[in-house]
Design a protein that fits this description.
Length: about 950
């Protein structure tokens, strides 16, 4: 049966919010009910748009701050597909993201005002604007702030006990500490993005229809164990809308970015008895800086967003290998043993990581002198490198404070000398608390922070930690106190935090400890009879804070009057206080959500300086728009639960929208204990996601894949497939870096006119050609999947090459024994593969290529491969190879300067009619075979030079 997506509830028990007094319950509506809006005047048109003045129409309502009387609006047609609408205070006192943090495209040389896909429309008083498609001027706008377009009668709060979730149609509100604007949307439209989020409704965000009650997405980055339906590590205020026209049976996609780092609530809701839905933004500062993207396809929207904030970084080819880590390695010799056991089990390991176990007293840029002595770490890393393997250590965002005059901790003292630490308002050091005890935090706005950070990494590397990349953690930023708790403290009395000895006893859903024992080894053979079912619904409780009254006279940095739905309550909880100060006159309240991004940029630039001939490799936890230019991302501190394996899929799909394609989950789960079956299925699933790392926590049972025979066998199988597909992965990421195209795609990206696909998030596509259908429930030996294409697409099994017999639009039951994950190839595809997957990527790339062709019903196929050395920073010599099949002839075209040493050794063509003769470059060959039952032609013993243009293979 088809998986039914539950909608995220704002009442009815899914999101429970504490009750409040009647006076407080009316506070929100009283505060905003009399807001007058603005009147537009002094309009000046230009070749690229317009500029105008917005003047407060009447007395300010001062709902949650002071209304700003004079605003400026700038409308700029940035390209044929992108329109910018920027509304800011004319005095320019509100915080705006500096160009030094996120560079935006300059004004185009040519005018797009009359030819853009999008059109800006407005009413002068009360000011409102709406965005339409030029080709559909009478269709419902893509974005519409007119009060007349929004629900016309007061709407009950989304939860009657939480007045801050009430909605009514109000004009634009622009105050020093509160901004509000809403747009009408088609009823129950398809919205994706607005993260970072793990949504109980799934990849498609809940619009409050069909049993759901809407979405509150809060933007305030925080360190929290992967919560469901709450704010978490990153903020990405962009959404993609996919509209389906039931009359034409056609769809179009568009996108909206509000580029702001302000703390915010974003609401999605469909009021009862209304024929529209809406999105509403409530921000506690900043300006309104909207970008609208016309699409019209999902991939177009994602690429257009990338053109504004920057395309993703180029990944080193070894980053696509299998990575292994845990928090809890006791010593460098323990890590060395793990690497040796992986090789003994013949499970490919490309990159070995270490967590904070590496550190001395949990301090960044150190090694423990007893368990991880520098000379032994250096020896270990050198041996890895000799075997074409790599090493990545962790870097936490907080830097330990030296406890006394004899404590020679250079990163701290050097940072003091160079003035790179965040301060208190009085100019003293802001001192929080993290793993090493009292800590300071880098001020990424500091004039000296780049040279300081580069030097710290350089010194660490020279001490023996020969890293190939860096893992950035705890960079929301995380602090275990919500104020400068180290100010005036006795540093020498502080003991670093230590969680050693912690033992975890939790197991995955349906784990039977009585039957299977306490090892996590389940004896897989018996699992198929397990009738256990799981409930994947998690109830989340958000305790709402009181709401300040209106008519506030001052500016409240520590306690903004409007209380966003931060899961920790007050904004400073478990992070830096909002009054922490930065160079340039910035305060944490305004720049908090960008801490991780700025660390990523600084680290990336440091690695480029230290290793100028290598591409940086970074994985970070906290992210923000444009993070993908500098880093990849892992999905944070998840749980060893079947539910979280499923939830990882929506995270991976989300981050493709956010232009951070190198993303993946902690495979087998981070918190609590995994078991044999869950780890098997998760190792299989993650092999088909961009970032592939197994990682677990201190106190949990070990979960390296060699620990269980079934996990080991499944891992060998899927890693071999992953390494065979490496040229395909690499080409997808080249297209991401060159043009912003998504590497992993929801099914409807490729099949946008099939409504049954709009909520699918249990399957995904690698690029356009590979469909993955994992098992996501315990005890299963089959899995249901949908095969898109409405009958016009042929899907073939990766393993057998057999054509799938599926009913268009319906679910198909597939065999899925424990060692098998279902993978299928789309027709009209030509995939360049590595013919002989080996233990490392270097060894794999040294071997020959193979080509897998899956013909369409008309006998055609097309594919490309992007090739370069995989290490050098672009621009670098490269080659694009195109494979084109028509009329039983495969033609290979090639361009570029990169010399491809490996030869094409074998070509497999699926769907070919039985040939009598096969020729290569017009010469008859006998090194081929044909299977009539599979319609499979294999031409082998080839040595085709992929640098030679015009090679052809024909069969007749």
């Amino acid at each position: 049966m088809m998986f039914s997506l539950r909608r995220f509830g704002l009442h009815g028990g899914v999101l429970c919010i504490a009750s409040m007094s009647a006076s407080v319950a009316n506070a929100y509506s009283m505060n905003v009910a009399n807001c007058p809006g603005y009147t537009l005047g002094s309009l000046v048109e230009s070749s690229n748009g317009l500029t105008a003045r917005l003047t407060l129409t009447g007395p300010g309502c001062n709902a949650f701050g002071q209304d700003i009387a004079e605003l400026t609006i700038q409308v700029a047609y940035q390209s044929s597909s992108t329109l910018r609408v920027k509304i800011f205070d004319t005095a320019q006192e509100q915080f705006t993201i500096p160009e030094s943090v996120i560079a935006r495209p300059s004004a185009p040389a040519e005018s797009y005002t009359g030819i853009s896909d999008l059109v800006f429309n407005y009413d002068p008083s009360p000011f409102a604007f709406w965005i339409t498609r030029r080709c559909e001027p009478d269709a419902m706008p893509l974005f519409d702030t007119r009060i007349s377009s929004l629900p016309q009668t007061p709407i009950a709060p989304l939860n009657s006990s939480d007045p801050s979730t009430a909605f009514d149609a109000f004009p634009l509100i622009f105050e020093d500490q509160y901004l509000q604007v809403a747009s009408a949307l088609p009823y129950d439209t398809n919205i994706y993005g607005l993260g970072e989020a793990i949504a109980s409704s799934g990849f498609r965000r809940d619009m409050g229809t069909n049993g759901g009650t809407g979405t509150i997405q809060t933007n305030w980055n925080r360190d929290i164990k992967d919560p469901i339906d709450e704010n978490m590590y990153g903020s990405h205020p962009i959404y993609m809308e996919h509209r389906f026209n039931e009359i034409t049976n056609k769809s179009t996609s568009s996108g909206v970015l509000l580029l702001s780092s302000a703390g915010a609530d974003i609401f999605l809701q469909s009021p009862p008895d209304s024929n529209v839905s809406f999105i509403e933004y409530r921000m506690i500062g900043g300006i309104l800086d909207f970008y609208f993207f016309s699409g019209p396809t999902p991939s177009d929207v994602i690429a257009q967003y990338g053109a504004i904030i920057g395309y993703p970084m180029w990944q080193p080819v070894w980053g696509f290998g299998f990575h292994l880590c845990r928090w809890g390695y006791s010593s460098i010799w323990d890590v060395e043993d793990v690497v040796a056991r992986m090789r003994a089990a013949n499970i490919p390991l490309e990159v070995q990581w270490t967590d904070i176990d590496l550190y001395h007293a949990h301090r960044d840029f150190t090694t423990d002198p007893v368990n991880f002595p520098g000379d032994e770490v250096a020896r270990f890393v050198s041996e890895l490198a000799a075997n074409n393997q790599y090493y990545i250590p962790i870097v936490d965002a907080a830097i330990a404070v030296a406890v006394n005059s004899t404590d020679m901790y250079d990163p701290f003292t050097s940072g003091v000398e160079q003035d790179v630490w965040i301060k208190n308002p009085d100019g003293s050091l802001y001192i929080g608390e993290v793993w090493p005890g009292y800590t300071v935090f880098p001020d990424w706005f500091s004039a000296n922070v780049q040279s300081f950070w580069t030097e710290a990494l350089k010194n660490w590397s020279e001490l023996g930690v020969g890293f190939s990349g860096i893992w950035l953690d705890m960079n929301e930023a995380s602090s275990f106190c919500g104020y400068s708790c180290g100010t005036g403290a006795n540093f020498s009395a502080l003991v670093p935090l230590d969680e050693s000895g912690r033992v975890l006893t939790a197991w995955p859903e349906c784990y039977n400890a009585t039957k299977w024992g306490s090892s996590g080894n389940m004896d897989i053979d018996g699992v198929s009879t397990n009738s256990c079912t799981t409930n994947s619904t998690t109830t989340t409780t958000v305790v709402k804070r009181d709401i300040a009254a209106g008519q506030e006279a001052g500016f409240y940095i520590n306690d903004p009057p409007y209380k966003i739905h931060n899961g920790f309550g007050p904004l400073s909880n478990h992070t830096l206080a909002t009054n922490a100060t930065h160079q340039g006159g910035y305060v944490e309240l305004d720049v908090h959500n960008m801490f991780g991004l700025m660390e990523e940029k600084t680290t990336h630039l440091a690695l480029k300086e230290l290793f100028p001939k290598q591409r940086p490799f970074l994985i970070s936890r906290s992210t923000f728009p444009s993070s993908g230019k500098w880093t990849g991302h892992w999905l944070g501190d998840n749980y060893s639960k079947w539910q979280y394996m499923y939830l990882s899929i929506q995270g991976i799909l989300q981050f493709q929208i956010y232009q951070i394609p190198m993303v993946g989950a902690d495979t087998c789960g981070f918190y609590d204990n995994t078991d044999e079956e869950l780890c098997t299925r998760w190792m299989q699933l993650s092999a088909f996601t961009p970032f592939y790392r197994n990682h677990n926590t201190l106190g949990a049972i070990p979960q390296e894949p060699y620990r269980w025979p079934s996990v080991a066998e499944a891992s060998r199988t899927v890693i071999a497939i992953r390494y065979a597909l490496l040229p395909y992965w690499y080409t997808l990421f080249a297209n991401a870096s060159l043009a912003g195209l998504p590497t992993v795609r929801a099914l409807f990206y490729e099949f946008p006119d099939e409504p049954e696909l709009f909520a699918i998030d249990r399957q995904w596509l690698m690029g356009r050609d590979i469909l993955v259908t994992p098992v996501l429930t315990p005890g299963a030996t089959t899995v249901e999947g949908i095969f898109p294409g409405r009958g016009g697409v042929i899907w073939r099994d990766w393993y057998t090459h057999a054509v799938v017999n599926a009913t268009p639009g319906d679910l198909t039951t597939l065999d899925a024994p424990i060692g098998h994950i279902n993978v299928h190839i789309r027709d009209n595809a030509a995939l360049l593969l590595h013919h002989c997957p080996a233990y490392t990527i270097a060894e794999t790339r040294a071997g020959p290529y193979a080509l897998l062709v899956s013909l369409s019903k008309t006998g055609s196929a097309l594919g490309t491969a992007y090739l370069d050395d995989g290490i050098s920073p672009p621009p670098t010599p490269n080659r694009t190879v195109t494979f084109d099949v028509a009329n039983s002839v495969l033609t290979i075209k090639t361009s570029g300067t990169y010399v491809v040493e490996s030869k094409l050794a074998m070509v497999t063509i699926l769907g070919a009619a039985g040939p009598c003769v096969v020729t290569v470059q017009g010469q008859l060959v006998s090194t081929w075979s044909y299977s009539a039952s599979a319609e499979e032609l294999v031409v082998y013993d080839l040595a085709i030079d992929l640098g030679e243009d015009g090679t052809n293979i024909s069969w007749q």
